[in-house]
Amino acid sequence: MMINRSFIILISCVAALGGLLFGFDTAIISGAIPYITPYFGLDAGGLGWAVGCILIGCAAGALGAGWLAERFGRLATLIVCALLFAVSGIGAGLSHSLFVFVLFRLIGGLGVGAAAMVSPMYIAETVPAHWRGRLVSLYQLAIVSGILLAYFSNYFFERFDHNWRLMFASQAAPALLFLILLFLVPETPRWLLRHQRKIEALAILIRISGSEAAQTELAQIENSFTTESGSAFQLLFSKASRPVLATGILIAVFQQVTGINAVLYYAPLIFKETGLNNSSALLQTIGIGAVNVLATFIAIGFVDKVGRKKFLLIGSLLMGTCLVVLAFCFNYQYFDHYIVLVVLVLYVGTFGCTLGAVTWVYLSEIFPNRIRGLALSVATLALWLADFIVTYTFPLLIKNLGTPLTLGCYALCCILSFIYVLNKVPETKDKTLEEIETLFI
């Protein structure tokens, strides 16, 4: 098989940049919290809403992106996402009332939610099966790189007047870069075939893997469409599709209820609770972001060798252990020897190379061709709703239960994730998208 490596890497990296904006847009709030809290006069509930409102937009974006991606294409949807990212950052940075701030955060959420669904789907539908795990993992690498970039942006702008405004407005730059690069890549061959554009689909497949392999893959894809009857919406909720849809939803939810975004969004506040000032807290947060990036390379290097299921099991177990240790540290006020920083780094690093990266790989590949857009939309919607619940309730749980019990709740969710994956999740490595369909249906 003749593989066009440079073309495959180009389209994967460009699509993955949707994750960079995802990470930047969601994490930029962490550095702005100490400044928007007094500016808008926020209490614990108001802070939870200001931080978490973007996730309502994410849920709506994920819900609408399924239809948009099926109707107008994966590429067109990503272009819309890039525009929403730019508008959101500038608007939030210029806002003078909580209503306007929340409105633009919701707009950004639409882009984040849609990109979270479409970017990994675009990569999964385009690249060869034996490369799919590591290239879809590029999306998670882009997310954590965006988070790290946001942390650096927060640390840099923290010294300026109107610092929180500059933090938000800075996301317009990577958004415009993403928009420009999207015009260099094609639509996915599976979407083109779905819309009877066979010649264009074949041309892309030939460019990816050569003429002979392209003809074989084209026949497999066409067969996956012709063997299914009924509309995509009917198939989505049919008895045959329920097992795969349930698996996708639960894997998405478990990624969030293990507490990762509560830690990432509120990391400076967690560090300040150990006695650090705001600048030192932001600096340690950068360290966590850097570890998250480095850990993702482990997933990229090994997910196609070790497999998805083992990564999910290891991640659930190690993250749960870290949360228990952190709970004890906060319960007994033991903050010596940088133990909180070390355990948080291990927790975030474990997430980055397991649940963080592998969840997107798994969700992008398990759904059948006919329902992939809509099913991934539903699973991503569940992910964002779970993320919103965790993010909104975190300051309230800290206030009413305290940090130790709050972290204990997330540890319990890690245990439930381990049990579910162990018993219900099949392995998908080295299988084509069409072969994976037979595991569930």
TrEMBL record:
The entry's keywords: Cell membrane, Membrane, Sugar transport, Transmembrane, Transmembrane helix, Transport
Domain named Major facilitator superfamily (MFS) profile: residues:
11-429
Write one Gene Ontology MF term: transmembrane transporter activity
Where does it sit, as one GO cellular component term?
A: plasma membrane
Q: Which residues form a coiled coil?
A: none
Question: Which superkingdom, per the lineage?
Answer: Bacteria
Q: What is its main location?
A: membrane
Q: Where are the transmembrane segments?
A: 47-68, 75-94, 100-123, 135-152, 164-185, 244-269, 281-304, 311-333, 339-363, 375-398, 404-422
Q: Which Pfam families does the record match to this protein?
A: Sugar_tr
Q: How does it sit in the membrane?
A: Multi-pass membrane protein
Gene3D superfamilies assigned:
MFS general substrate transporter like domains
Which InterPro entries does the UniProt entry name for this protein?
A: MFS_dom, MFS_sugar_transport-like, MFS_Sugar_Transporter, MFS_trans_sf, Sugar/inositol_transpt, Sugar_transporter_CS
| NCBIfam families assigned to the protein according to its UniProt record, in alphabetical order | SP (TIGR00879)
Family according to the record = Belongs to the major facilitator superfamily. Sugar transporter (TC 2.A.1.1) family.
Q: What is this protein called?
A: MFS transporter, SP family, arabinose:H+ symporter
Give the organism, scientific name. Mucilaginibacter pineti
Q: What is the lineage of its organism?
A: Bacteria, Pseudomonadati, Bacteroidota, Sphingobacteriia, Sphingobacteriales
